[in-house]
Amino acid sequence: MSEKSIAIVGATGVVGQCMLETLEKRGFPVKSLKVLASARSEGRELSFRGEKLKVEVLNEDSFKGVEIALFSAGGGTSEKFAPLAVAAGCVAIDNSSAWRMDPKVPLVVPEVNGDDLKWHEGIIANPNCSTIQMVCVLKPLHDAATIHRVVVSTYQAVSGAGKEALDELADQTRAILDGKEPICDIFPYPIAFNCIPQIPQSDAFLDNGYTTEELKMINETKKIMGDDSIRVTATTVRVPVHTGHSESVNVETEKKLRADEARAILDHAPGVTVKDDPTNQVYPLALDSVGDGATFVGRIREDLSHPSALDMWIVSDNLLKGAAYNAVQIAELL
Description:
Blueprint: E1 4-9, H1 14-25, E2 30-37, E3 45-48, E4 51-54, E5 56-57, E6 68-71, H2 75-87, E7 91-94, H3 110-113, E8 123-125, H4 129-145, E9 147-156, H5 163-177, H6 212-225, E10 231-238, E11 245-253, H7 259-267, E12 272-274, H8 286-289, E13 295-302, E14 309-316, H9 320-333
Parallel strand pairs: 1-2, 1-6, 2-5, 6-7, 7-8, 9-10, 12-13
Antiparallel strand pairs: 3-4, 9-11, 11-14, 13-14
Helix pairs in contact: 1-9, 4-6, 4-9
């Protein structure tokens, strides 16, 4: 790969810093690197390959001379600045939900639909974290047996809600263990020692009873897989885990797949690691996924209530494969 001029928008956030670390760990050929954020972070120093980079304030002129910009600063920022980046001759890889369902913008998981990059017009969308790990497992099964329906329940880590949410989890845990009342600022209810079936926590439920996170999983899965006929329903839940999203997934297929057949297929799937040995109690754990770019799958078994369905447990680091690592993989394909 030739060296590229890179910018990270939202570089001081949790995902932005993971993008910085991932570029370094992957040995991405960086010619120059800008770290951009809001005015409150101006002058802050971030480390990259042993050097200190000063955070610059994001503005309309930030993308001059930049070839690839990785965005992780929220939908409003992406809506305003991604087109400006494209106008400056830059490719924008956006981690927000702003562009995901735009028909002119490819929504890409490299192991699943990397070929969609061929028709980008300057903006490429990074999917929702919980969608990414699920489709990495679904795609090879769909190719082998044609998926008709997916039922997923997620157990999503607090890091997906940002640094302030992680701080709230820590503060509430200490408070409860000390016999004090936990204070809720980020979440509507205590997250420590609790599960909250509402993601994102700031959005009201939709008229149909779903949350926007659940609809993201439904709609993004169909777009990434390139098949609107797949029926998907989701329940998304925030759990008191620091990092690593977990999912319970039921998959109904046209052609019956035995559990051993599914394991064999997934053993050869790109980016997927099978951890499935019931005899020795081996299965994926959120803790095991941290710092790893793979998607882990286990507890693969045939659904006793349906003649052609499988149950499985899928785990991945939501900050890496669910965000930063997937974005850098897209940049590598470019």
